[in-house]
Amino acid sequence: MNQHEKFLTMAINLAKKSAKSGSGGPFGAVIVKNGKVIAKAHNSVVPNQDPTAHAEVNAIREACKKLKNFELKDCVIYASAEPCPMCLGAIYWARPKALYYAADKKLAAKAGFDDSFIYKEIALPKNKRKIKTTKVNLPSDNDPFEEWAKNTTKTEY
User: Fold this and answer.
1) What pLDDT is stored for residue 31 in this prediction?
2) Taking burial as the number of CB atoms within 10 A of a residue's CB, which of 76, 111, 126, 127 is the most buried?
């Protein structure tokens, strides 16, 4: 078994444990740095009452705390399934060097975890989305960005 298979199997086992226990959806994620596991997590949406508590997001949060950094530049993320749009966004913001996954989104959709509607919604004009999405123009809408631009001690990300 090669390294990728080893860590993906670990992620799959986390997903199976979560699915069997009912403590979360059937998803697991492992984050590795220099061949060592630094974080692992499973989905905990239901017990945490948190729609963002997906395996990948949970693992990213744990890894960043351990590394004391908001980036995972030298890390690899292993996911039991192809990440959803939210998790993929979080992965890109975390900036790992690679992502490997086992089950693809078609298998996830067959099991009831179909993210295709989100991709479709993102592509729609705001006035055509299922969730009312409206920009409200305020004189101060750019103030936070102006403050950010002026801050000479900010941490860029």
Assistant:
1) 98
2) 76
